[in-house]
Write a structure and sequence with these properties.
With about 350 residues, the chain is of the alpha/beta class. The protein is built from twelve helices and ten strands. The two termini are about 30 Å apart.
Length: about 350
């Protein structure tokens, strides 16, 4: 799990634009059954799956593996309210970033700092006009393809995100809010695919992560974050032990998440992953080529069921395998494995 505040630094130097022209009419919440959605953007990397990263390190990671990026994952800040989110998505700098790769993936807050926990008002339509403006701005971005990760990591609670779910009695209103927002966004951006994204482990035993699923009729893609943590997957035995593991009635291991997604007829996006120097770990301890190699093998073996993957190559968040400004990586062994695997691509 990476905090919202750290993600705010992924895109900087943005100039706000005024929020105007909000539509007044309300729309019904999406319902019924939807056909399985799929990403249709070209795969320019030459890999069997879509592979990407965040804006910071976008160039150096492509150079490291000698392959172009198929996807770029950006983050919309939640500390400037709904008007700020809409303005952010109208900003020329963000739109330029979104066009760097065929697939633009937008990490979009479900609620903002000043509307924290307001699932009920959201579900009742309080933010409908803003959602429609956000959809219109997304639609006007000019990206080849758009995936919106709406309210990512809700399963780790409100201490990490304003839209985090803390208790079972919030689940119904959270899902109604998600569905309401989805309907409004799709009303003005019908080509957008919506991703429901979870942290890999739901430690809060009051929640069952699969109960938080907003519904197969409104979710196009499932997403999961699978960082090298809890514990490090630095031996094949540890990787194998956790691969199909479940926890608290829901998936935990990467294989378990893939199984759950496919059972719901969805492709799985590994929206964020990376080595991670957590707690008292030294950089040398976090430098884990075994984990990197197994992530590659997972993508290669399951390419038909992977919507896209994105390495979180951001400095200074203790994940970067390279830097666009030439800062040396703390993880030379992991970087060497990424280079070997992704450049080979077989």
């Amino acid at each position: 799990m990476i905090s919202t505040s750290s993600r705010r630094g992924v895109l900087t130097g943005l100039v706000g634009a005024s929020l105007a022209g909000l539509a007044a009419a309300t729309l019904p919440v999406a319902g019924g059954s939807a056909a399985a959605a799929d990403v249709s953007t070209p795969v320019i990397s030459g890999l069997a799956w879509r592979s990407g990263t965040v804006p910071q390190g976008f160039t150096c990671l492509a150079q490291l593996r000698s392959r172009a990026m198929d996807a770029i994952v950006t983050f919309v800040p939640d500390d400037q309210g709904f008007a700020g989110m809409a303005s952010f998505l109208a900003n020329a700098y963000w739109r330029g970033q979104a066009k760097k790769a065929p697939l633009a993936v937008v990490s979009l807050p479900l609620l903002t700092d000043d509307t924290k926990g307001q699932f009920g008002p959201c579900a009742a339509g309080a933010f409908d006009a803003s959602w429609r403006q956000i959809g219109a701005n997304l639609n006007a971005a000019g990206a080849q393809g758009l995936v919106v990760r709406l309210g990512w990591e809700a399963n780790i609670g409100s201490k990490s995100h304003p839209w985090g779910v803390d208790s079972a009695d919030q689940v119904a209103s959270y899902k109604a809010c998600w569905r309401r927002a989805a309907a409004q966004i799709k009303s003005t951006a019908p080509g957008v695919l919506l991703e429901w994204t979870s942290a890999k482990k739901t430690s809060n035993t009051a929640l069952k992560v699969l109960d938080i699923n907003p519904g197969d009729d409104v979710v196009d893609i499932w997403g999961v974050h699978y960082y090298d943590s809890d514990p490090l997957k630095n031996t094949q035995a540890i990787w194998d032990k956790y691969y199909n593991l479940t926890y608290n009635g829901g998936p935990w291991g990467l294989g378990a998440w893939l199984t759950a997604a496919t059972q719901h007829g969805k492709k799985l996006a590994v929206s964020e992953y990376g080595v991670w120097q957590q707690g008292t770990l030294t950089a040398a301890q976090a430098d884990d080529p075994v984990y990197v190699d197994n992530m590659y093998r997972f993508f290669r073996a399951n390419a038909a069921n992977v919507a896209y993957e994105s390495y979180f190559n951001k400095l200074p968040d203790d994940h970067a395998l390279c830097s666009d400004d030439g800062t040396p990586t703390n993880y030379p062994n992991a970087a060497a494995m990424y280079k070997a695997d992704w450049s080979l691509g077989k």
